Amino acid sequence: MSKLRHIAVTGNIGAGKTTLCEKLSKHYKWEVQYEEAEANPYLDDFYHNMKRWSFNLQIYFLNSRYNQIYNIKNGQKVVIQDRTIYEDAYIFAPNLYEMGLMEQRDFNNYFSLFKSMLRQIGPPDLLIYLKASIPTLVAHIQDRGREYEGNMSLDYLRNLNDRYENWIKNYEGQKLVIDIDNMDLKDNPEDFAKILEQIDSILHGLF
After folding, report:
1. Which parts of the chain sit beneath pLDDT 50?
2. Residues marked as catalytic
């Protein structure tokens, strides 16, 4: 697997991306690049006033994700990334725009910047999508108890989930879809072992 560089884990808010990244990092000795959610200076403001802060929030995430991918592609380590740049552009930003929470000129500016960035980077070697129903997502969100997520509406979460499903169907890169509704990635070793088997099969086929 000498050419392997970039594994990405994707999924809606509360899907278990960080948990899976940590476990895969420990098992394969991969480096983890986490989503900079806690460090995002706009996140708390966004959840209290989405329309005012949506553009700022998305630009921060887009820039952060681009820098991560650039460093991964130009580095020597195998890195697993918590969330992808595609989700910013194809799920979160257009969802905000269609909900009337981002102005059209801001969305157009944002998407133009994304396309410019995309010309400089390629897709991950493997994209792992954690598929989850709304009850599963809500349970995970409540369990971790992040204060800024407390004001999130179910409609917002459902809209995101619909977009994830549409996006992953059309994603043309190498992908692995894992339904986590009946899995406990955090505490059940057997569930994690099943995922490892699938990942090993794909990676050995690719490299």
Report:
1. none
2. 82
